Amino acid sequence: MKEALLIILAYFIGSIPTALIISNKFFGIDIRDYGSGNMGATNMFRVLGARFGLIVMVLDILKGMLAVGLFYFLPFYLTNELYRTNFMIGLGLAAVIGHIFPIFAGFKGGKGVATLLGMVIAVQPVVAVACVSVFVLVLYLTRYVSLSSILGAIMMPVSVLWIWNEKELIYRVFALLVAFLVIITHQKNIGRIIKGVENRIPIFKHRDKRKESHQAS
Question: Using CA atoms in the order 106, 21, 200, 96, what is the torsion angle rounded to 10 degrees?
């Protein structure tokens, strides 16, 4: 019973519409009416710039971490690693579902990548570092947040199944589930990338200017 209540609370935490709150408070708009129509950090980057995109990204990551941390309210999970891991994953997934289908925003949210990252940081911080490294590298090279998110998510099962060769079944299933969830929620982005019409976010402009100057010379 207590577990169920905490999972519901995790869903409510994930449902906090950070992008909607910030876009409305500072710009008087509903971010879902612009760009891709998603209520997430990527669309904030695209529509309102890097500053507000970064703020939303950090807050959404914290939602995932906070939701996973709810297990501390039940002392039983402090001493049983296997049960704790299962419960942490359940709490994190509830928060991700809350972000994608937020009760506080008409069940129309974002794609859950930042909240999912927060969940992974809380459950498997070393693997999270590997995923973030791939994300940042791909973002620097392409400025496609969607492609960076997809490849960063794919890095998770690569890390868990092959690099660290994790034996625990729950971790292996979790890693595959993360990659599957991110790919499914980015199907439209994958189509736009293939067609060459996916939007790039306005960061690393200094790199682009250096490239243009080099090509001009």
Answer: -50
Which residues, 6+ apart, have CB-to-CB distance to 12 below 8 Å? Answer: 98, 103, 104
Q: Which residues contact 119 (CB under 8 A, 6 or more apart)?
A: 64, 65, 67, 68, 89, 92, 93, 95, 96
pTM of the predicted protein model: 0.86
Q: Dump pLDDT digits (tens) for 73-101.
A: 999 998 888 889 899 999 999 999 999 99
pLDDT digits (tens, 9 = 90+) for 182-207: 999 899 889 999 999 888 876 655 55
Q: For residue 95, give the amino acid letter.
A: A
Q: Is the pLDDT of residue 151 over 80?
A: yes
Residues 6 or more apart from 147 whose CB is under 8 A from it?
138, 189, 193, 198
